[in-house]
Amino acid sequence: MYDWAEFRHFLYLLKILEKGGFRRAAEELHTSQPNLTVQARRFQDRASVRLFRKMKDGRIRPTETGIAFITLARPLLELREEVIDALVAIERGEIGLVRFGSTPLVDPSLFRSFCALHKELLPQSSVRPTHGDAAQLAKEVLDGTVDAAIVTLPLTHSDLHVEELRRDRIVVCLRKDHPLAAKTAFQVSDLQHNLSIIYHPERHPDAHLRLLELLGDAGISLEEHSCASHPSELQNLVKEGHGLALVREGTLLEEGLITRRLNGVDWTVDTAVIYHKQRHPQTVPILVRKLKRNIQKQIPKSGISTVLRSPNGVARRPVQAVKGVPERSSRHNESR
Fold it and tell me: 50, 70, 90 — which closes off a domain?
């Protein structure tokens, strides 16, 4: 239907809009102004859109549609580069065995999907899975012993590309026979004296600090508590009657456990793919795009929150987003 639309149209128009005029765009693209004028007119006429208006001083100003074009055209052109880079790397035999990592708090099905996508792209290649804490996997990605990893946040490093995948609401996990189980939803104040099971601070120090910060902002102090080194251990502690825990909404629960939402706060756990900005298999950015598209398709069914990004690529988070609070889930995942 749109076979007439070529990549050069998107490249030309994006540069015209970014530079605010034809002359500067032509200079950077090493082409002539008349050529840009012709191509811009053809695209707009065929698509029946108006992307910019010419001002009296000769500069152009993007229309509302033009602003949207900028946002949509950039990833399209980036994808072209990524696809060609991946094909060249495959042709040269540079993509062989890949090593993908995952933290205990990541939804196992999400990690399996990531590995499966690579096998779908390169059926003859081998995927070597590995598991560890976020800090350890980040170090291995930086060292080159792991090619990419799915982790729960927060995690930052200047040499790491961190691509957020989704956010999941944090809910309270408790026994079905707990005195508070009759409530359909909890107030944050219900956590006081009852939240007594947490993911071990040493397994995710940054997330633990963030949790303490959010609890403190809500007026909740963490008192005597038990620690779990794995999501399954956390649920076992709840089953054994040691108190309440915070988990991801949609977590696959052990028999005898239920979850309740927290009213008045928007605490979430965030999951991301990390890989080295410079040294990574050229197929990885393609896989991340495919994985994010698959997650988007699941949103109507699972209610997973989308990740919003500002123009500079920084993710916009809810005011009270928690990254890395423990959970175990077959459908949703956590933050780091």
Answer: 90
Pick from 68, 72, 118: nearest CA to 96: 118
Domain that holds residue 41: 7-90
Backbone phi, then psi, for 270, in 5-degree steps?
A: -115, 135
DSSP designation for 45: H
Q: Are residues 149 and 279 in the same domain?
A: yes
Q: Distance between CA 248 and CA 236 in Å, rounded?
A: 16
Give the Cα separation of 97 and 20 in Å (integer): 46
Single out the residue of 177, 115, 13, 109 nearest to residue 328, CA to CA.
109
Tell me: do 288 and 161 sit in the same domain: yes
CB contact at 8 A, 188 and 262: yes
Dihedrals φ, ψ of 114, to 5°?
-60, -45
One digit per residue, the tens of pLDDT, for the chain of length 336 reads 788 888 888 899 999 999 999 999 999 999 999 999 999 999 999 999 999 998 887 788 999 999 999 988 887 887 788 788 878 877 888 788 999 999 998 999 999 999 999 999 888 888 999 999 999 999 999 999 999 999 999 998 999 999 999 998 999 999 999 999 999 999 999 999 999 999 999 999 999 999 999 999 999 999 999 999 999 999 999 999 999 999 989 889 999 999 999 999 999 999 999 999 999 999 999 899 989 988 988 765 444 444 433 333 333 344 344 555 544 433 333 333
Identity (one letter) of the amino acid at 22?
F
Last residue of a domain, one of 72, 90, 108: 90
CATH of the domain at 149: 3.40.190.10
Show the DSSP H helices in the chain as ranges: 7-19, 22-29, 33-47, 64-91, 108-121, 134-143, 205-217, 231-239, 284-302
Burial class (CB in 10 A: 0-12, 13-18, 19+), 156: exposed
Distances (CA, A) of 202 to 95, 135, 210, 280, 334: 35, 10, 13, 28, 17
Read off the amino acid at residue 13: L
